[in-house]
What we know:
Layout: H1 16-30, E1 35-42, E2 45-51, E3 61-62, H2 67-80, H3 100-106, H4 111-115, H5 126-130, H6 137-143, H7 158-172, H8 176-188, E4 194-195, E5 209-211, H9 213-224, E6 228-229, E7 232-233, H10 237-243, E8 267-268, E9 275-279, E10 283-288, E11 293-299, H11 304-315
Antiparallel strand pairs: 1-2, 1-11, 3-5, 4-5, 6-7, 8-9, 9-10, 10-11
Amino acid sequence: MTTAALPRSKVKDQSRVALSVESFLEAVRREELNLQSFMLLHHGEVAAETWWPPYQPNDQYHVFSLSKSFCSTAVGLAAQEGLLSVDDLVLDYFPSYRTPDIERNMGELRIRHLLTMSTGHTQDPTGAIRNAADGDWVRAFFESPIEAAPGSLFVYNSGATYMLSAIVQAVTGQTTLEYLQPRLLKPLGIEQATWEMCPRGINTGGWGLRVTTEDIAKFGLLYLRKGLWQGQRLISEAWIEAATVAHIPTPTENGIDKRQGYGYQFWRCQPNGVYCGRGMKGQFCIVLPEQDAVIAITSDENRMQLILDQVWEHLLPAL
């Protein structure tokens, strides 16, 4: 097995898994779901892969909020290297921004609250942060009012993920993408990945990553294998476990799969033990530990729950 490509399965065409894939693809057609690509890994091999024209295997996709799971991994690697702890206060990493007002607003906010989107905001501040007139998104985040106690409630917050990226850059002197290159991307054979930046040169963290479908599948396989890749430990098993369990309930989210709880930038899913990274318009990295499987999907589809419904109905039983 090379780092460049995942091995392809020799599963016979009439196997149970192959038939379930046919059923899934037929359901996608019947429901008119606008998928771009689909890849199924089973027992570490590619058991099925499909691209819908005009998309092709080497195409890179903007994976939107699936970027968050990669950003979380950078935080885990920095924690592994002793550069930070999830219990650290966020403001301690940005002393030049400390004022009495910001101290009162953000003084109790910790990295774990950013990871679990439990910052205490009652509305997502990301729009205001991105529209900061001076391009200083960090200051705009610190000035966004927190109304509830950090850790008390979940509110979806891409600005929190941006702050994770800013912390990674603060402790490493590199962008999140640069930091991940030798530690994650190169070992997995993920090449030519790009990531948007804010006006101050910090990777956006919560969106903006561009990778291929197979790159998404490799990332999921690393998590499925508890941080091991070809016998090499890339991420600690303890971090994988912590990142992928539910730390906070998400009962008001839209769609039943988004109401299963949130980890460190990963969502829990309905089936037992299943979790995923997910992005707007139907970008998915679904990890199924009990089935020893990973599913990577890219799409341009607003009906994200309907995509997952087809996965659970048609693919899960055969796996």
